[in-house]
Amino acid sequence: MKQFSILVVDDEKIQRESLAGFLAKKRYQVFKAGNFDAALQIIKQNAIDLVLTDVKMSGKSGYDLLKAVKEINPSITVIIMTAYGNIEEAVAAMKDGAYDYLTKPLELDEVELLINRAFQFKQLTEENAELRQKLSDKHRFTNIISASPLMEEALNIAARSANSRASVLIEGESGTGKELIARAIHFASPRKDKPLVIINCAAISESLLESELFGHEKGAFTGAIQARVGRVEEADGGTLFLDEVGDIPLSVQVKLLRFLQFGEFQRVGSNQARKVDVRLISATNRDLLKMIQEGAFREDFYYRLNVINIKVPPLRKRKEDIPMLIDHFIKKYAVENGKEIKGISREAMDLLMKYDYPGNVRELENLIERAVVLSRSEIIEADDLPIQMRVVGKKEQAPPVEYYPGDFRQKVEAFEKDLILKALAEADFNQSQAARALGLSERNLRYKMAKYGIERAER
Question: Edge to edge, what strands does the sheet with 100-104 contain?
Fold first, then answer.
């Protein structure tokens, strides 16, 4: 049975030491802090299961600490200690995420009982989350792992839109699961037995995108040795998913707009109008309204796409989902790699909860796959995670200098290569997107890729 950790926060030393001593005798791992700042530092640097905090303290209060804890790691349980006359305030704190409250002077038997109940509830919640995941149906929205209110709102809108013909625009950062939601909408719709055709607009050059979408006739351009059906025709009766719609050039936006307005299109090199029945779902990680202001995206096209809008929150704003996702990915990659991985340590879970995930769920999945492969035991430990993660929360410091080998020039080059590889991975190796993210020209990015020997195979 694992040893739970408790942080006692009270600016009265006698109270703090007395309560900490009692809990230590009950075989809990105990940390102590006399104020908000000290408590926050301990939480950032250690895997804390439960915070027991006084409300009235010099400086910031226990309520302030409650809010800060929930922002750092929502799974940490918080119990408020308050004087009898402030019970109404303690009840209000429970609405903000506190598990329960205790009134002073404390009855130690009551403290022990409440803490035991809190840990039992914590374990039950984790078991229920695991059960919910096992019962998920791949053809329903329930297969999308989530416990976050923000994500649940997005999924609710998606589910309600499934039976309609309305165009859907899914907005969110790279790696948040936009394609997963698009697939769920399709398979929950009356079109589920018809094709779902996916096209990544960022991966196709401007000169070829129109032909890819609408097809072409023989001889329409150099190399068109035979007629070709486009993706729009392939999706007839089903759903067309345009990923990275913000990368569609203006010339193609005009033709897609006509298609959305009238349901008609023409193959490249043909004057014949063709009709299809297609439901359009699109997705983007770019700010389309800003692009409209800059003249890079048509306003009329935007409003045709954006009949139903779904905003997918980044993983840093839905940290409640992280434990469930971790469990899912551990099971997935343990099977794929033939490993006997039974779980993850408290310290490793704490590091993963505190990380902000610029690459979102895709980055978390990659981290867990790496950890499963590298793990030397049945439990994933903190040492199985990259060194960058093991310094999170410690004054937000960068990886230590010794992380990069060689002299100063070699360290700088190694760091630059790391940045380029990360930008390329987050952009699915789309060089245009990666260059924009890095603030480089595409030409400069290609030069640096050649310099460091970076090829697509390094993904």
Answer: 29-33, 5-9, 50-54, 77-83, 100-104
Dig out the tokens for 180 from the structure: 């997963």
Assign residue 169 a region: left if phi > 0, alpha if psi is -120 to 50, beta otherwise? Answer: beta
How many other CB atoms are found less than 10 A from the CB of residue 221? 12
* Tokens matching residue 236: 């007839």
Tokens standing for residue 172: 């969110």
Pairing, β 215-216 against β 228-229: antiparallel
Q: Residue 359: in which H helix or E strand, if any? A: none
Token code pair at residue 326: 């971790």
- Please, which residues have CB within 8 angstroms of residue 168's CB and are 6 or more apart in sequence? 158, 161, 182, 185, 280, 281, 282, 307, 308, 309, 310
The span from the CA of 257 to the CA of 261, in Å, is: 6
Query: DSSP string covering 164-193, please?
Result: S---EEEE--TTS-HHHHHHHHHHTSTTTT
Q: Are 276 and 270 in contact (CB under 8 A)?
A: no
HSE-CB at 392 with a 13 A cutoff on CA atoms is 21
> How far, in Å, CA of 71 to CA of 317, rounded?
9
pLDDT tens over the chain, length 459 residues: 568 999 999 999 999 999 999 999 999 999 999 999 999 999 999 999 999 999 888 889 999 999 999 999 998 999 999 886 677 777 888 888 899 999 888 999 999 999 999 999 888 887 776 665 454 355 467 678 888 889 999 999 999 999 999 999 999 999 999 999 999 999 889 998 898 999 999 888 887 898 889 987 876 676 667 878 889 999 999 999 999 999 999 999 999 999 998 888 888 878 888 999 999 999 999 999 999 999 999 999 999 999 999 999 999 999 999 999 999 999 999 999 999 998 999 999 999 998 889 899 999 999 999 999 989 899 999 989 887 676 544 444 445 555 556 677 777 887 888 788 888 877 777 888 888 888 888 888 888 888 877 765 333
Task: Output DSSP code: residue 378.
Answer: S
Three-state SS letters, 310-345 = EECCCHHHCHHHHHHHHHHHHHHHHHHCCCCCCEEC
Nearest CA among 421, 434, 417 for reference residue 244: 434
d(CA 176, CA 315): 7
Whether the predicted model's global pTM rises above the 0.70 cut = no
Contact 287, 171 (CB under 8 A): no
Q: Are 247 and 204 in contact (CB under 8 A)?
A: no
How far, in Å, CA of 12 to CA of 35, rounded?
10
